[in-house]
Amino acid sequence: MRQVSKVATLDMTHQARIIILAFLASMLTATLALGQQPQVLTLGEAIELARRNNPIFLSTQNDEAAASWAVRSAYSRLFVPDVTVFSQLQYRAPGVQRIGTINTGGVEQGALFTSFYSLNVNWQLNGTRWFQRASAEADRSATRARTKAAEFTMESAVTIQYMTALRAGDQVEVARRARERSQENLEIAQARVAAQAVIITDQKQAEVQLGRDQVALLQFESALRVEKFRLMEGLGLAIESDVTLASEFEVFKPEFVLSDLIAMALDDHPQLKAFVASEKARKADVRQARASYFPSIAVTGQWAGFTQEIENGEFLVAQAQNGITNGLASCQLFNDISSGLPQPLTGFPQSCGSGELSPEARASILARNSQFPFDFQKIPFQASLQVSLPIFQGFSRERQVSQASAQLDDARHLRRSEELRLRTAVTSANDALETAHVIVGLEVRNREVAAEQLELASARYRLGADNFFTLLEAERVMADAERAYLDAVYTFHSSLVALEMAVGRSLRPGSETLDDQVEN
Fold this sequence. Notes:
Largest sheet: 4 strands, antiparallel
CATH superfamily of the largest domain: Outer membrane efflux proteins (OEP)
CATH class of the largest domain: Mainly Alpha
Radius of gyration: 47 Å
Number of helices: 12
Number of strands: 8
Structural class: alpha+beta
Strand content: 5-15%
Shape: elongated
Helix content: 55-70%
Number of domains: 2
Order of helices and strands: HEHHHEEEEHHEHHEHHEHH
CATH architecture of the largest domain: Up-down Bundle
């Protein structure tokens, strides 16, 4: 009984483990299934993700912080003096130090400890610093304009890639419909072969056509995945799951006025604004370079202190004692000389004292020696005012002015070149858009005619009025018509994006695309 119970217990334990493992497996499968669900992404969401994650755009945007600090630095250098605090600790080992032919120090005094501090204030004003503020502000404006231009370029690239991915998705749908029609034709051919209405060649030909359509579908599906990968790369994100593109774009009749489009491009295009801001920055650089001819003023001030302490304080006491002893001998000598003269010296005889160093003087000497490292003796405050006027510096100022003027001329030429480029881009993109709209209308009609022809050919083949090759030719014409229509639609959208890129703002009515209007 115990053995049977033990076996039953093992069986129940094994079953429980199986149930638990099955439950965990089902939960894991459900989790993976949820994780693999495609994410829906609109064009607006894609652009916003690119703003936050695109590394190339973010690297350009980071330049704004440095430009802002350059402006703060320019204002600070103009109104706030430079302040420097300096401190030094020094140790010199015991021994004799030779300075030329003079020996200083000695072994008796021991090591020497010194410390020093200084607080220096320096303020300068010259033409370069005065105009540096305007130059830094112009550079900051140019940096912000370049960031706006980079943002616009990034949004345009995301929009184009989004369109490309949508086009790849529509090509997959066209290929899938072609495969479904080939499957239906195969079933019809099999039925007619079974009824001995046609020979088996029709069935084989239908199988070959189905295989070709399956290969084409696989190729278009692979192309769709690749385009989505490229879209995610442009957004600055890693590929984690499939993405469903949800934005839809309609074909509309373009009724833009070319002169208005050119005016909008010349007024608000971010890239042109970047060139204009760069030209203003170079103009500020010219003023700053010419300011090197102006005089300069410099005001400085210094607060300082020092300490000096020897290791053997008794050495100082001994020196003081020697001085008192020598003074006593000198005093007694002059007293003796004065007493031996017929007319004593004025002030003599003097009281020469005991010739011994008092305890109070000894303690004072030791206290004054105990300074290191923070019992500073102040050095008198120093201040100076300097005014200088540069006269000749080897033509370096002329060279700087010439270089700045040349860079200004280059910026003007680049700005004018960009204006001409925008005029040409707007004109050509507008013409391409109008042509694409006409082609879309023609391809719509061609697709309708191809669909009617395919429907007629399919019906005649079912009735035995036409052979299978006629049906295959109608299928080919229909597939070509669908692809041509698809090409025409996306050529229209691509032409519209190109026109938006040339104008610098959104032109699509009631649909997602670039920003509605670029900020000034």
